[in-house]
Amino acid sequence: MERDADGVGGSNGDVARENRTDADHVVICNPVSGTEDHLERVRTLARERGFSVRITEGEGDGVRFAREAGTDGAELVVASGGDGTINEVVNGLVEAEALERTTLAVVPTGTGNNFAANLGIDGIEGAFDAIDTGRRRRIDLGTANDRAFVNSCVGGITAEASGATTPDEKRRLGVLAYVGRALETISSFESLPIRATIENGPDGSDASPRETWTGEAMLVLVGNCRRFGGTRRAQANVEDGLFEVTIVEDAPTTDLVGEAALAGLFERGDRHIVRHRVPSLTLESLRSEPIEYSLDGEMLAAETLDLETAANALEVVVGDGYRPDPDATGGRSG
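The structure assignment produced for this chain is given below.
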């Protein structure tokens, strides 16, 4: 589903800008994400376009600012920051019940910027160019116990491991960096005794309508806009209404030392990997205590986690590198 660059049914961007008000187009910027040197550039590019700019100062500001913008009827809300900032902004739009009328744009100023890369958005200037001239697509939105996420939900990555991971590791390895750091920072990796109830929809790749996996897992990885393989950037089809679910079964820690071993762990066919493509699933802890999950980098602890996809629920600005079906051949699809 594509729309004209300004989302107003025409190609005359100058006319659209003349009709804008500050409340119509709002930039929510996290000034301390990434290298912390982007605020003035973002502010300048936003104001050149007549956008208003709101600066976050602490946790929850992104949710609050987006909720206010959505409630006020904003046509476009721009999240400038990393995946955690984007997550806050999306949850604010959900709280405002604004997904039908508000488009999300992303300016990648975080460390890893995985979601932005999956949307084909590259750099600050590239992000604003995409806002001006790019396509709009409606993508799936994931929910976990009623909290929204756009990129991924990862179980088994501790807050301590996340905090100990360096920016360079995040840039090079993405989620693998957290796995490696977790293995390094604890002497004996504590696996997750879980029950995963898989709900297969009619469009899923699995035949039976419901199945259960029970066992010891090192990691549970649920991708909405990303899949988990040996490469850092691995965009999933985020318009098919399905999660890419990867369960990494318990494996000897000594088998997982080093970047090559971690990358190899996710290769298709590895004996430690269970994969599904499904619209929903439930994860239950079998040790009577919560499991910690990371939703786009935002932490959530739960004994039972219900995950569902809302197909084509969120309209986003995408760049030229975005592939509606990343497995299609023959150039840009869509």
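Interim note for the steering committee: Residues 133 and 144 are 33 Å apart (CA to CA). The chain is about 25% helix and 30% strand.
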